[in-house]
């Protein structure tokens, strides 16, 4: 018997997104060399160390690369802006949101900050929350 | 002392639509033609390495043997993304170089006509949904399009844009001009899937796929096969003078993967593994980038070609934009790049690509390239990248015999 009332009100799109008052990303950081990974690793890809600790990723950064996708796989809404954002030395992949998806509004080197958006609510009344980056 | 190794015979099929042929037919066509070009038969082959990425579990190599000759030799079915063909060739080269066999055959084939976008997507959620975490990131919904792009055009667009951010000067127009060059080159290649020249305006005005890559700036999905016969130097010296004259020396054969670097988990780094492969290849061959008479590099997208000028050290570090603007990579320039038309025009039947680019270089080194011949070509380089990543670099030299 599912107790829908006990379901959390919100769930993150991915497990490395931490919701709450101050949404941010969290990485598995190698305790030996500091390399950061968003998924689990048995050993560090850089130094082979086997010990990791959670590390909070900066929520502000600079757009280091982007593309405006206008043709995508079926079911993927277009256009959207995919970007690589340098968040204080940790590179993050995410969409640029809350601005027009064109080369006049999205620029290399632009400053951005983490922002969240809703993906909708499921049959249990749980809302999924995604993240992107908006102009800072 | 390891053996020197040579390409004795090589062939690529016409790239394009082959609706009446399956992958075995196409592979057999390329393999039989490569054997005929070499003047040998399946009887002499000591090893077969074969690639067909889209059906990597189907035992393509054994199916090919049943089509052209079953002699009981070992088959290595290889899969290494877009570097599959180069990996098949490198497997054969290692076997011959080690002295275990005198001859080997490498074959790559793909049927991709009409395949559409590669990479990306993800399964759609069923109706009556419940957000349920799954996969390595505990995702409750497909992430392609929500957390950046998984598809190839956007991934390689970001690779080019990243270079532009680092060094400047990489505009939409510049990338379109690279595509203009390759389409112009393709007009001379009868085996290219598309051999039509486009104006810069046509390229920039075409359908945008992933900014700054428009449709003609993306590699063409098509059908095709390619095959090569490799021989040891000691065996080559027992063959006819004509076979020795047409044999092409493999001066360097290198395969690398991407070493760990910050950011490689969010954007594949296609730069470092290419630079590493190039460094090793130049050292193995004892030649430098300035010695190359032609280069076939992996222009899966116009944005990718730019970064590989730099990665292959055809220009000083950070100088790829200037290198292109100088006219150097045009067929009448100082370092002709992709005179075949490149993947954007010739087409990119994945597993065939890493042998077809070697065929192009061999064709020129043998002086058999007809109207598109680079006159006096003596040394050439072929490069492929498979995302994930794998990089193959081969340096080829005209036979001294």
Query: Tally the helices of chain A: what do you get?
Result: 0
Structural class, judged by helices and strands of chain B? alpha/beta
Number of strands of chain A: 10
Major sheet strand order of chain A: 1-10-9-6-7-8
Structural class of chain A: mainly beta
Q: Gyration radius of chain A, to the nearest Å?
A: 17 Å
Tally of contiguous helical segments of chain B: 13
What's the CATH superfamily of chain B, by name? Answer: Thiolase/Chalcone synthase
The proportion of strand residues of chain A reads over 45%
Low-pLDDT parts of chain A are none
Rounded Rg of chain B:
21 Å
CATH-derived topology of chain B: Peroxisomal Thiolase, Chain A, domain 1
What's the domain count of chain B? 1
**Series of H and E elements of chain A:** EEEEEEEEEE
Tell me how many strands of chain B there are.
11
Quaternary class: heterodimer
Q: What is the 3D shape of chain B?
A: globular
What is the residue-averaged pLDDT of chain B? 96
Helix content of chain B: 25-40%
Write the layout of secondary structure elements.
The complex is a heterodimer of chains A (136) and B (401).
Chain A: E1 10-12, E2 17-18, E3 24-30, E4 36-37, E5 52-57, E6 60-69, E7 80-87, E8 90-96, E9 111-121, E10 127-135
Parallel strand pairs in A: 1-10
Antiparallel strand pairs in A: 2-3, 3-4, 3-5, 6-7, 6-9, 7-8, 9-10
Chain B: E1 5-12, H1 23-38, E2 48-51, H2 60-68, E3 75-78, H3 84-97, E4 103-110, H4 152-167, H5 172-186, H6 200-205, E5 208-211, E6 213-214, E7 224-232, H7 233-236, H8 241-246, E8 248-257, H9 272-285, E9 294-296, H10 302-311, H11 320-325, H12 342-345, H13 350-365, E10 379-386, E11 390-398
Helix pairs in contact in B: 1-2, 3-13, 4-10, 5-10
Description of the structure:
The complex is a heterodimer of chains A (136) and B (401). Chain A is mainly β. Chain A has one domain. Chain A is built from no helices and 10 strands. Chain A has strands spanning 10-12, 17-18, 24-30, 36-37, 52-57, 60-69, 80-87, 90-96, 111-121, 127-135. A 6-stranded mixed sheet of chain A has the order 1-10-9-6-7-8, with no helix packed on it. In chain A, strands 2, 3, 4 and 5 form a 4-stranded antiparallel sheet that branches. In chain A, strand 3 and strand 4 form a beta hairpin. Chain A is globular. Chain A starts with 9 loop residues before the first strand and ends with a strand. In chain A, 37% of the residues are buried. Chain B is α/β, with parallel strands linked by helices and 401 residues long. Chain B has one domain (5-113, 220-398): Thiolase/Chalcone synthase (Peroxisomal Thiolase, Chain A, domain 1, 3-Layer(aba) Sandwich), CATH 3.40.47. Helices cover 34% and strands 17% of the residues of chain B. Chain B contains 13 helices and 11 strands. Chain B has helices at residues 23-38, 60-68, 84-97, 152-167, 172-186, 200-205, 233-236, 241-246, 272-285, 302-311, 320-325, 342-345, 350-365, and strands spanning 5-12, 48-51, 75-78, 103-110, 208-211, 213-214, 224-232, 248-257, 294-296, 379-386, 390-398. Chain B has a 9-stranded mixed sheet, with helices on both faces. In chain B, strands 5-6 form a two-stranded antiparallel sheet. In chain B, helix 1 packs across helix 2 (60-68), helix 4 packs across helix 10 and helix 5 packs across helix 10 (302-311). Chain B is globular, with a radius of gyration of 21 Å. The chains are: A mainly beta (136), B alpha/beta (401). Chains A and B meet through strand 4, strand 6, strand 7, strand 8 and strand 10 of A and helix 4 and strand 5 of B.
């Amino acid at each position: 018997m599912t107790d829908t009332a006990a379901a959390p009100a919100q769930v993150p799109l991915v497990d490395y997104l931490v919701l709450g008052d101050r949404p941010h990303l969290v990485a598995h950081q190698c305790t030996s060399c500091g390399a950061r990974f968003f998924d689990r690793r048995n050993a560090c890809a850089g130094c082979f160390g086997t010990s990791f600790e959670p590390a909070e990723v900066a929520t502000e950064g600079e757009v280091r690369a982007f593309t405006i996708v206008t043709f995508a796989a079926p079911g993927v809404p277009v256009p959207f802006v995919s970007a690589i954002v340098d968040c204080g030395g940790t590179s993050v992949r995410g969409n640029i949101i809350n601005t027009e998806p064109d080369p006049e509004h999205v620029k290399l080197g632009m400053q951005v900050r983490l922002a969240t958006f809703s993906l909708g609510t499921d049959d249990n009344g749980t809302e999924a929350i995604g993240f992107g980056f908006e102009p800072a | 002392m390891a053996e020197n190794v040579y390409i004795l015979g090589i062939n690529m099929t016409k790239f394009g639509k082959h609706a009446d042929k399956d992958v075995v037919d196409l592979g057999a066509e390329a393999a039989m033609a490569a054997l005929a070009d070499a003047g040998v038969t399946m009887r002499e082959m000591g090893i077969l390495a074969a690639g067909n990425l889209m059906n990597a579990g189907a035992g393509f190599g054994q199916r090919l043997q049943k089509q052209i000759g079953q002699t009981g030799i070992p088959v290595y079915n290889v899969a290494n993304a877009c570097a599959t063909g180069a990996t098949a060739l490198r497997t054969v080269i290692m076997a011959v170089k080690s002295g275990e066999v005198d001859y080997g055959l490498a074959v790559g084939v793909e049927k991709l006509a009409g395949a559409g976008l590669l990479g990306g997507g993800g399964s759609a959620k069923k109706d009556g949904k419940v957000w349920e975490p799954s996969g390595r990131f505990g995702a409750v919904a497909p992430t392609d399009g929500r957390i950046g792009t998984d598809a190839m055009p956007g991934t390689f667009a970001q690779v080019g844009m990243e270079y532009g951010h680092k060094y400047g000067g990489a505009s939409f127009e510049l990338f379109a001009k690279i595509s203009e060059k390759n389409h112009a080159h393709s007009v001379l290649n009868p085996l290219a899937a598309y051999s039509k020249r486009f104006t810069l305006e046509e390229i920039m005005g075409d359908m945008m796929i992933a900014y700054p890559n428009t449709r003609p700036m993306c590699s063409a999905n098509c059908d095709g096969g390619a095959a090569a016969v490799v021989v040891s130097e000691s065996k080559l010296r027992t063959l006819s003078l004509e076979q020795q004259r047409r044999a092409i020396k493999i001066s360097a054969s290198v395969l690398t993967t991407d070493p760990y670097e910050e950011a490689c988990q969010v954007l594949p780094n296609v730069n470092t593994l290419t630079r590493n492969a190039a460094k090793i290849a130049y050292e193995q061959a004892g030649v430098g980038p300035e010695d190359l008479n032609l280069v076939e590099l992996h222009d899966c997208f116009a944005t990718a070609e730019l970064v590989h000028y730099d990665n292959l050290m055809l220009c000083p570090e950070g100088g790829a934009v200037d290198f292109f603007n100088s006219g150097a990579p045009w067929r009448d320039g100082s370092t002709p790049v992709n005179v075949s038309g490149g993947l954007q025009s010739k087409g990119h039947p994945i597993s065939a690509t890493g042998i077809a680019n070697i065929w192009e270089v061999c064709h020129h080194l043998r002086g058999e390239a007809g109207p598109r011949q680079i006159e006096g070509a003596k040394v050439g380089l072929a490069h492929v990248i498979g995302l994930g990543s794998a990089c193959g670099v081969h340096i080829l030299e005209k036979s001294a015999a």
